[in-house]
Specification:
binds potassium ion, about 550 residues, binds ligand NAX, alpha/beta
Amino acid sequence: MNGAYSADQVRAAERPALDAGMGAVLMSRAAFGLAVAVQRLIRQRRGGLYGARAVALVGKGNNGGDGLWALANLARRGVAVSAVLVDREAHAEGLAALRAAGGHVLSLPGVPTGREYLSFQDPQSDRYSRPVGVGEGVEVCCRADVVIDAILGTGARGGLRGPAASLVGALALAQAGQDGFPPVVACDVPSGVDPDTGEIHGPVLYAELTVTFAAAKAALFLPPGARCAGRVEVVPIGVEESLGEPVLGRLDAGEARALLPRPSADGHKYTRGVLGVVAGSEEYPGAALLACSAALAAGAGMVRYYGPASVCAVINAVLPEVVCHSGTAVPEKRLPGRVQAWLLGSGVSGDEQLDRCRAALGSGEPAVVDAGALDLVGPGTDRPELILTPHAGELALLLSRLGTEWNREEVEARSLAALSEAVESTGVTVLLKGPQTLVRSPGGLGYSQADGTPWLATAGSGDVLAGVLGALLAQAASAEGADDDGRWARVAALAAVVHGRAGRIASGEAAGGVGRPLTARDVAAAVPLVWDDIRTGR
Ligand SMILES: NC(=O)C1=CN([C@@H]2O[C@H](COP(=O)(O)OP(=O)(O)OC[C@H]3O[C@@H](n4cnc5c(N)ncnc54)[C@H](O)[C@@H]3O)[C@@H](O)[C@H]2O)[C@@H](O)CC1
Ligand SMILES: [K+]
C-alpha cells in the first residue's frame, strides 16, 4: 500500500544512517532523484537538455541542500543553472558543488552577498553571489524552463517569511496570471505547506511535480496542501525499511483489485449482501433513485428500499429489482425484511424518513450515515461499523453540534484534525468527501484517496458514493473471516476508489481523454465497469 508519513517518522527513519555519518549519501541520493525528474520534465518540454535553464529557490536547510546538489548535477549535463538564495545561510557543500559546476548564485535583498557570508559558509570560494531584487528574481524564474522549489522541507514551521515570502508571493501572482509560467518542481514538499497537516501558510507555488524522498509526506495526501503538490514521485534513499506504519494509507489499483468483492460459485443473493436503503423523500425522490442504482451497480445481492409510497413508485418504475417497503416505522421495532447493512439519510427530509433511519440505526447492522441522518449520531456512539459520509460543511456542523465550533473553511484548511476530532468524539468511522477523500476509523489506519476527477463535483454524486459504499458494506458484512479492526475504513476507502474511477470512466479520462461533463447517473452507470478497469490494471 502507498502510505504517507509524518516529518518525525521520516526523521526517525533517517536517524541511524545520519548517526553512521551517511547524511551526505542520503542527500546525494535525494538530489540525484530530483535532478533525474527535472531532466525528464525538461526533455518532455524541449526534447533535450542542452540550452535549457533551471532555477532553484534555495532555503537555508537540507531542503535547500538538495536543490543545490540537484542544480550541480543538471549543470554537468549542460543545463544553465541558477540558485536564488532566500535566506541568510545556505547548505555549504551544496553551494560549493554548484559553484564548482559553473552555476550562478543570486541572493535576495536582506540576504548577505559579501565576503562575510562566504567566509562563514564557503571559505574556499572567492566568488560573491549577485544581489537581485524580487522583480529580477521573478524575471529569472519566468525565463527558466523549470523552477525548483527547495526553500523548506520537513523542517518547516509555519509559512514562508521575509525575503522568501516576498519572492514566492510575487511568483505566485505571476504563476496565476501567466500561461507560459515554467513548471515548478517541489523538492520533498511545496514550501509554505505544513508537511504534517497539509495546511497552507501564506504564499505558495503550485507544483506540477513533487519529488519526495523515502516516502510521501502526509501533506502530499492532505488537502489543501496536496493541491499544490501536483504529481508525486517518491525517490527511495535507503531508509524505507525503517519507516513503520504510515499515518495515512492509499489503496492502489492492486489492492483495490484484491478487495473488490466477487460472488462465490455457491453464493446467492443473501450471501452477496442485502442493503437496506432509507434515502430520498417526496421532496427529493432523485436521491433515492441514484443511491439504489449505484448500490445495484456496485454488486449488492439485493436492495430493499424504505420510504414514502410515491418514492417507491418512482423507484420501481425505473429499477424493478428493488424491493420497496412503504410502511411507516414503528418505534422500538425493526424495519421489515433482513438486511446486512444500511444506507441512511441521502436526500431524506421530514419526520417519517428520520423515524425509519432511527429504527434502522437501532437494529445494530453496519450503516452508511449520510446527509440528513448525520444528526442522529452523537458523542460516544462507539460503533466503528457506522460510516459517516459528510462533506466539509456537514462535518463543520457535526463538530459544532458535538461541542467545538468549526466552520467549513476551517475544516477545509485542517481536514485531518477535523476528521480525527469527529472520530474520537463519536467512536464511529468517518469518510470526508472532497477532492481527496479522507477516511478514519477509531484506532485504525486512515486513508486518503485521490482517484476521481473534478467533473465528479456535480449534484447527486454524493448519493452515488453513498450507494456504492452501502453495497460494499453489505458485501463486507456478509463476507466471512474479514473481521479485523481496519475493515470499516478499508471498505470506505474502496468505495472512494470505485466512485472516483467510475467518475473517470464517465468523464472519458480513464480512456485518455481530457475530460467532459458528466451526470450522477453517468457515474452510477459506469460503476460496474470499474471491475473490468481494475482487473486489467489500468
Ligand atoms: N535529514 C536527511 O538525512 C535528509 C534530508 N533531506 C532533505 O532535508 C529536508 C529537511 O531538512 P531540514 O531539517 O534542514 O529542514 P528544512 O530544509 O525544511 O528547513 C530548514 C530550516 O529552516 C528553518 N525554518 C523552518 N520554518 C521556517 C520558516 N517558515 N521560514 C524560515 N525558516 C524556517 C528551520 O530552522 C529549519 O530547520 C527534507 O525535506 C529533505 O528535502 C534529504 O536530503 C534526504 C536526507
Ligand atoms: K520544498
